[in-house]
Design brief:
single chain, 326 residues, alpha/beta, eight-stranded mixed sheet, two-stranded antiparallel ribbon, 10 strands, 17% strand
């Protein structure tokens, strides 16, 4: 492979919501990488060269509302249906008919829904950290409101426009450092400490973040990259994803209980609340992900799996991709 093909290049492509910024490396079958909150394409910096070296065209995007992608003003412009169509638009703009889609955190849900709704485009799906749960069930805001007792679940906290912005935006870099540390294996609060996924009465999320030490996977330069993007854009576009969960529930009602049938992969962290709280969703995979090829829970790993354990995730991803039907 030429040196040029091995370098990361950047450009923007048209999408229904405006423009989507993409980072691209390598040539071969397309693998679309979708990040979560609060991240950007940069969260895939360890996977892109490994995928390119293995013979794939790795394309990591900035999700609508993040980084250098467009950030529509309307809150309801961030519903799941719109993000799925952004993914399709990227595939088409790259001159491809199909792609493998891989997502982390919110990106995992976006990836799974893309595979569910547009199976003719997304031929396989990889999910990191957040298990697949089919559409349906109770209204999400009702579920979140019942969680935590006297405390408030972070999703409910994020759903109120302007509230989390008031906490985050005066010190984006410090808030991000604390949030990343709170969910990382080597810096998360010890068992029995107040849970950083919940807000105490009259408090903020940041009250429960660990302070004074970055997780091993996050260097000062990495933090500068993330902070620089959110300092420039603000966090409203990112938070608007949480503010559309009830709309998604309504939009996807016709897919109540629907499985994702394409070949799939799941990788989670054993110390990640997304994995432990949703253990029932993982147990349901024979029904909800009947095409599951591999499900791996990484011991001693937190939420940021592809950054905390890049070599292991790269090995799992490339092995899974190599085994997919041509």
């Amino acid at each position: 492979m030429s040196r040029q093909a091995m370098e990361i290049t950047h450009r923007s492509v048209s999408s229904p919501g405006g423009r989507i910024h993409i980072a691209e490396q390598g040539t071969g079958p397309l693998v679309l990488l979708v990040h979560g909150f609060p991240e950007t394409w940069y969260s895939w910096r360890h996977q892109m060269p490994a995928l390119a070296a293995a013979g794939y065209r790795a394309v990591a995007l900035d999700v609508r509302g993040y980084g250098r992608s467009s950030a529509p003003a309307a809150t309801d412009a961030y519903r799941m249906l719109d993000l799925v169509e952004d993914n399709v638009a990227v595939v088409r703009a790259l001159g491809e008919e199909t792609a493998v889609v891989v997502g982390h955190d919110w990106g995992a849900t976006i990836a799974a829904t893309s595979a569910l709704l547009r199976s003719e485009v997304f031929r396989a799906v990889g999910l990191l950290s957040v298990p697949y749960t089919p559409p349906g069930g109770p209204r999400p805001s009702d579920v979140f409101a019942r969680m935590g007792g006297d405390e408030e679940f972070y999703v409910s906290y994020f759903q109120e426009p302007g509230r989390a912005e008031t906490e985050i935006e005066p010190d984006v870099r410090g808030w991000l450092a604390g949030f990343y540390a709170a969910l990382s294996a080597d810096t998360m609060p010890p068992p029995g400490a107040p849970d950083p996924h919940f807000v105490g009465r009259g408090g903020t999320l940041r009250d429960r973040f660990p302070a004074g030490r970055l997780p091993a996977w996050l260097g000062e330069r990495d933090l500068d990259v993330y902070a620089g993007e959110f300092e420039r854009t603000g966090v409203t576009g990112a938070l608007n994803r949480y503010r559309n969960m009830d709309r998604d529930w309504e939009d996807l009602a016709a897919f109540d209980g629907a499985p994702v049938t394409q070949p799939s992969l799941f990788v989670g962290g054993a110390l990640d609340a997304s994995t432990t709280w949703l253990s029932g969703a993982i147990e349901a995979y024979p029904v909800t992900l009947p095409g599951l090829v591999s499900c791996r829970i990484l011991d001693g790993c937190g939420h940021w799996v592809q950054q905390e354990r890049p070599a292991e995730v790269n090995r799992l991803l490339t092995g899974w991709l190599a085994a997919l039907p041509a």
